[in-house]
Amino acid sequence: MTTQLLTIMLLTPIAGFTGCFITPRKRERVIFAIAMTAMIVELLVSAAFAYQWFSAGLIPISTTLGSLYSSAQYSVSLEFYFDKIAAVFLGMATIMTSLVFIFSKYYMHREQGFKRFYTTLFLFYAGLTSIILAGNFEVLFMGWELIGITSVLLIAFYRDRFLPARNALKVFSLYRIADTFLLVSIWYAHHLFEKSVAFSDFPEIIAQHGNQLAVLGLLLLVAALIKSAQFPFSYWLPRAMEGPTTSSAIFYGALSVHMGLFLMLRTFAL
Fold first, then answer.
1. 246 and 104 in contact (C-beta within 8 Å)?
2. pTM for this predicted structure
3. Which residues is 76 bridged to in the sheet?
4. With contact defined as beta carbons under 8 Å apart, do 143 and 134 qualify?
5. Distance in angstroms (rounded) separating the CA atoms of residues 176 and 190
6. Is the pLDDT at 56 greater than 70, yes or no?
7. How many C-beta neighbours within 10 Å does residue 12 have?
8. Distance set, CA 234 to CA 199, 227, 229, 231, 261 (Å)
9. Distances in Å between the alpha carbon of 94 and those of 45, 98, 209, 217, 243?
10. To 10 degrees, what angle do helices 213-227 and 259-266 make?
């Protein structure tokens, strides 16, 4: 049952994106109805998942939903992990996204990009869910990239104006640096551990590798600092406000900038 609920939680944003994408852009009410239906389903499934987790005594849940790559010597799985940190972040992300969807119905009314806004926001939420529920670096990186791409698309939402497009390009360039540090840290983790390691296994591997983990920790720290706009990488944050107010609120006031913090919490054992 846990695996089924987790699968629904991951697929619901994709279903919402698909529904909004195939709806004609002038049908604002239909787009909004699809968006809210998807978020209500997400809230109900999340509540059911949290209830099972509470009933089990708040024990962290680790599950695998398939394989990204497999050979005789190596395998990378679609690993997912749910604990207290994930519960807090996922609850906040779902509630905040739902509120932004509701407010955007009025704020984005009759905007030419109404449909584009909702579809992009759904992709952002899908990436956010992937990061929060990720059980290893590979799944987290997929969500990390999706958030980066959608953030840049929403900064450049008013693409017929010069400043939004220019600032989106600057943010995109800096995000690529953060992605590089995260990607190198994943490569180094594979080189160090000689396998794809789940986050739940971190306490065990620390005793085996000792000081070698310092480099991995520093690489992750730089990626987190850039993603969360911390000094000395904080100058990109004001430039990101060129997008619609509602997306700025959810990205840079509430959720996106906290993904660096989430990365630090998830890899705190390092």
1. yes
2. 0.90
3. 69
4. yes
5. 21
6. yes
7. 25
8. 28, 9, 4, 5, 14
9. 11, 6, 37, 29, 21
10. 160
Q: What is the pLDDT of residue 253?
A: 65
Q: What residues have CB less than 8 Å from 221, skipping those under 6 apart?
A: 264
Q: What is the pLDDT of residues 57-93, one digit of tens each?
A: 888 888 877 777 777 777 778 888 888 899 999 988 8
Question: How far apart (Å, rounded) are the C-alpha atoms in residues 92 and 134?
Answer: 17
Q: Does the N-terminal peptide bond of residue 232 adopt cis geometry, omega within 30 degrees of 0?
A: yes
Question: Do 43 and 99 contact (CB within 8 A), yes or no?
Answer: no
Length of the chain, in residues = 270
Long-range contacts of residues 160-163, Cβ cutoff 8 Å, at least 24 apart:
163/242
Is residue 147 within 8 Å of residue 259, measured between CB atoms? yes
List b or e across 180-214, with b for residues whose CB sees 16 or more CB atoms inside 10 angstroms. ebbbbbbebbbebbeebbbbebeeebeeeeeeebe
Tell me the C-alpha distance between 124 and 157, whole Å: 14
Strand partners, 198: 136
| 3-state secondary structure at position 69 | strand
CA separation (Å) from 182 to 48, 157, 218? 33, 27, 10
- Residue 151 contacts residue 178 (beta carbons within 8 Å): no
